[in-house]
Amino acid sequence: MEDLGSDSGVQSQPDKGKGTADDEDGATQDYGDTYDFDDDDEFFGMDDSGFEPVVSSRDQRKPWEVEYHVHDAHGLHDKQEAMINRLVPVLSVSKDITTILLRNSQWKEESLVERYLSDPDKTIRDAGMFPNAPAPELKTGNEDFTCEICYCDGPEEVYLGLGCGHAFCTDCYVTYLTGKVLEGMSWRIRCPGAKCKALVGEQAARLLLANEPKILERYEDNLTRSFVNDLDSFTWCPAPNCEYGIECHVPKSAWATIVPTVHCRCGKAFCFGCNMDDHMPAPCFLVEKWLQKCKDDSETSNWLKANTKECTKCKATIEKNGGCNHMTCRKCAHEFCWVCMGPWTEHQQAYYQCNRYNEDSSKNARDSISKSRALLERYLHYYSRFSNHERSAKLARRLLTTTETNMEQMQRNSSMSWIEVQFLSAAVDMLSACRATLKWSYVLAYYMESDNQKLIFENNQSDLEMATETLNELVENPVHERTIEEAKRLIIDKTQYVKTRWETLLRDTAQGLQENRWKFQD
Amino acid sequence: MSSKMQTKRLLRELTQLKKTPCPNISLQSTDSLETWFVDIKGVDNTLYANENFTLQFKFTREYPIEAPEVTFIGNVPLHPHVYSNGHICLSILYQYWTPVLTVDGICLSILSMLSSCEKKELPRKNDVYIKKAGPSPKDTAWIFDDGTV
Q1: At A484, which CATH number?
Q2: Does residue A219 sit within a domain?
Q3: Short-list B136, B70, B62, B56, CA closest to B99
Q4: In this predicted model, what pLDDT tens digit does every residue of A307-361 receive, in sequence order?
């Protein structure tokens, strides 16, 4: 395959689809000049001018899109090499040592260089390497050599020693390394010597594993794995069995105002910040809050507050399901009035009326109950819409199957070719995207404080929602009392309209978040 | 690890243990090259002075890349890191094992663990552990929280 060497591709949003190998190749070229590791902020255009794309016009990004690159294993490997090779002349030590230093400092070049320049020897020793040690090599012909692991000795033994002075025969070393590599370790493998802090460098490991191609491959995999895990600007695609790594330089500090949605080459759309499925337009912190709220059942207690009262004596929770106001607690047998909560002894024979209703204490109790009832209703309003779109998104996936049947049927009942009925699946794709956006838009709305800006947002939201529902109906029942041509025209028009509404909502929220247009409440 | 290398190493350790044993450590018997029994005697002027214990060593095929399985058998010392089923909570027997450690070295470590003990008592949650633990202590996920031994 010709794009084996190429690794990084600038990928755009769904309308561009799963980018072809060719345009990724092209993008690799200018990738090097479009950013610099050291100045994320500048690169990202974090100033007041907002969210201007820094890439060439060929690569126009939408305001809600972020720049990112999808790398395959080769690409990730090249990426590491590039970072290492760039630093070798700066530190002017061997590549082996530079590599370990970089890995040991989580690839934070700046702080590493600073530390290194102030005390090179200590930095190298702290990382488990030795400043002036010769490059590791396999030795033989030493009369005095004894392997401390298997006690083999004599001049015919082949062995390897690190800068720490511990030497072991290659058989033992390879067995030792194999075990560690299969445990998932790579550059953190230490010398087998007792309490020895020396690291088995990559050069030594490659030398030893030269005859074990499978283990060596696993070793290299582990190295790449730790590279992606250690760097903040890299993450793995969370899709099962997907092996692509994503590079994105939106700094963590910006995740409150930018939703860093990335699209992996495998088709998965997810948030670079929290690795959850795409949750545009709600930013990560609101998503986390919302899911916590849904999970920890805080609303159960709200329900209890709204629907029950506590026995004033033993605090047992009581739900009144009928009968008069004269309550007798099942638990402690305390008698009280359901209406004013006062002891029943003050009420005499007024079973269905409480003339103490206007006392201050009973007023306060009722106030707090109605307040929590209002909170609950507000939550349920947003939650029902959120979960409704979640359900509909699942149904949309099922719709895809019926749509395929519909498409076949259309081809049979009319003169349309396969390509001419693709509009249906395009409509379903659009629907799915809108459902996901709408779902999370309710989370955003739930936390927004009510003001005019929120009204504008809600208008956009309801426009998109209505358009989506209409399109959904059309797609579910395309040829209901219509000719196929009419249906096609209608659906294409509606899909286009929905797309406009969808883009409007996304653009508006992306800009709004950048401008701090909304205030969020707890 | 080839079995030839393993045999060589074990034989070498065995000879060393027989010929030049450390004080308070003596080889009791070897059923086979895979299972050894080593007697250790409590060090003078410690809580375990004049007490005798037996350690069982089981070597897997991966020894010395992997640690041997070491347990007390018979008379189990009362010690906060030794469970009443003979399992020993000692880091070098599990995560911190390195192939250059020897039977000798392990015995010394265990002796020093016993010697530094200040109060003879069972480990916390001993009852829970011995109910749940498998036959081999190597199947336990150990947490080493005491840095003093």
Answers
A1: 1.20.120.1750
A2: no
A3: B62
A4: 777 777 777 778 877 777 788 888 888 888 887 777 777 776 666 667 666 666 6
